[in-house]
């Protein structure tokens, strides 16, 4: 029998260690990780006859393949090569989650110790980078937001590697230090994530909503308010006022990100129900060759979206969902609802044992959803690492679900027998 659990555990350790180098030195790391994990899934099916474990992977692969065929035969916005490249990009983040969900890798004590050490090293290196001049940060990792992301994920990895004994196993000062160091990245997205991470790490407890206390409800109501407050200035800058002091619809086309969102909405409305197809809009594959859709919707002369300067085309993940239309958006939402349902099964089955996993799972979900507003982290090395953690966290929920189905089937047989 092929032991994939040990291989997957080693892959996660390597992927976590490559978060900073993967930005500029090993830019192919995310594709390589996805390819290796995909091959492991195929090997598991061939040698261990585990086809059913990967039903979700085959389903998502079928959906993306359908969109590739749709892009090649119906909409014709880009070349076959670009469509194949985008097929790979769109599959990348789902492969790590599903493989780790299916394999359920178990880490040895030595591996957990290694993860804690790497988390501290990553956090220290990211903190040092944040003290460096801007040109050093750009040369090392490309953007100042990257050290903040690595610090956030390092805090989650550190917490998970300490085990389920939340009270005795985790040094809270290390987690707080990592999270606070990330504030130096000066990104509004991180400020919101900082508040959410602190809440789930130190304030959340199972059943908090069932405990009638006006203080707790006030605290929960304050959480989204704080996230909005800390992120409002950047939201206003990018989507409302820009460099001016008031909203002006006439200058909307001079800002790449709001143009992407506005045009994405138009594309969804014009291409019902399957969108504009792969490699057509707001994805890296739509840059080379340059997609015809930018000319069609009159945004090819916007700064950062032009053929000569396509720097901001791949600047946010959500606009790229226009490629998949209404159907794709519904499927994307279902995927996250499915993950949330797995987390609920965990916390309902054993609130004490899975308290930490539940909290870290929600931190990762919020991290990906918030980052996707103004970044494509979801399909990069950091996003791959986050999805591996999410699959690792949710894996026990599948066993719980199978046990529930088995018990329900047994009860039905007993009832029919009577």
What can be said about this structure in brief?
By secondary structure, the chain is mainly α.
What is the molecular shape? Answer: globular
H/I helix tally: 18
Unreliable segments of 5+ consecutive residues: 239-254, 406-413
**Rg calculated over all Cα atoms:** 22 Å
User: How would you state the average pLDDT, rounded?
Assistant: 84
| Strand tally | 0
Biggest sheet: strands, sense, closure?
A: none
- Element order: H for helix, E for strand: HHHHHHHHHHHHHHHHHH
> Approximately how much beta-strand content do the residues carry?
under 5%
Helical content class:
55-70%
Class of secondary structure makeup? mainly alpha
Between the first and last Cα atoms, what is the distance in angstroms?
A: 41 Å
Polypeptide structure, described:
This protein has 418 residues and is mainly alpha-helical. The protein is 68% helix and 0% strand. It has 18 helices and no strands. It has helices spanning 4-17, 21-24, 29-48, 55-75, 80-91, 94-103, 109-130, 134-141, 145-161, 166-169, 172-182, 188-203, 214-241, 256-270, 293-296, 325-349, 355-371, 381-417. α1 (4-17) packs parallel to α7, α11 runs antiparallel to α12 and α17 packs across α18. The longest helix is centred in the C-terminal third of the chain and has 37 residues, at 381-417. The chain is globular. Mean pLDDT is 84; it is low at 239-254 and 406-413.
């Amino acid at each position: 029998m092929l032991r994939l659990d040990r291989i997957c555990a080693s892959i996660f350790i390597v992927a976590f260690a490559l978060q900073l180098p993967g930005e500029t030195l090993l830019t192919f790391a995310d594709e390589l990780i996805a390819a290796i994990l995909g091959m492991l899934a195929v090997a598991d099916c061939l040698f261990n006859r585990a086809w059913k474990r990967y039903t979700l992977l085959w389903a998502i692969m079928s959906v993306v393949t359908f969109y590739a065929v749709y892009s090649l035969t119906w909409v014709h916005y880009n070349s076959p090569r670009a469509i194949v490249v985008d097929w790979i990009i769109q599959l990348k983040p789902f492969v790590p989650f599903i493989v780790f969900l299916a394999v359920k890798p178990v880490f040895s004590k030595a591996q957990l110790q290694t993860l804690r050490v790497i988390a501290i090293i990553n956090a220290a290196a990211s903190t040092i980078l944040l003290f460096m001049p801007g040109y050093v940060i750009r040369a090392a990792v490309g953007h100042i937001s990257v050290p903040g992301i690595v610090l956030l994920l390092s805090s989650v990895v550190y917490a998970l590697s300490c085990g389920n004994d939340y009270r005795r196993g985790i040094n809270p000062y290390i987690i707080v230090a990592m999270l606070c160091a990330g504030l130096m990245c000066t990104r509004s997205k991180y400020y919101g994530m900082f508040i959410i991470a602190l809440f789930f790490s130190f304030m959340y407890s199972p059943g908090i909503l069932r405990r009638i206390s006006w203080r707790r409800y006030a605290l929960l109501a304050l959480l989204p308010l704080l996230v909005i407050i800390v992120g409002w200035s950047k939201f206003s800058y990018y989507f409302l006022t820009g460099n001016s002091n008031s909203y002006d619809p006439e200058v909307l086309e001079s800002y790449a990100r709001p143009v992407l969102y506005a045009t994405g909405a138009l594309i969804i409305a014009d291409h019902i129900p399957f969108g504009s197809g792969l490699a057509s809009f707001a994805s890296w594959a739509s840059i080379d060759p340059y997609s015809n859709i930018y000319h069609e919707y009159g945004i090819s002369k916007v700064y950062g979206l032009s053929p000569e300067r396509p720097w901001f085309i791949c600047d946010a993940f959500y606009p790229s969902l226009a490629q998949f239309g209404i159907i794709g958006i519904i499927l994307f939402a279902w995927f996250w609802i499915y993950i949330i349902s797995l987390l609920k099964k965990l916390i309902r089955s054993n609130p004490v044992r899975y308290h930490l996993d539940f909290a870290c799972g929600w931190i990762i979900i919020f991290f990906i959803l918030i980052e996707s507003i103004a970044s494509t982290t979801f399909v990069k090395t950091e996003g791959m690492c986050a999805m591996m953690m999410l699959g690792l966290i949710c894996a026990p929920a599948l066993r719980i679900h199978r046990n529930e189905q088995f018990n329900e089937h047994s009860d039905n047989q007993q009832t029919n027998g009577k």
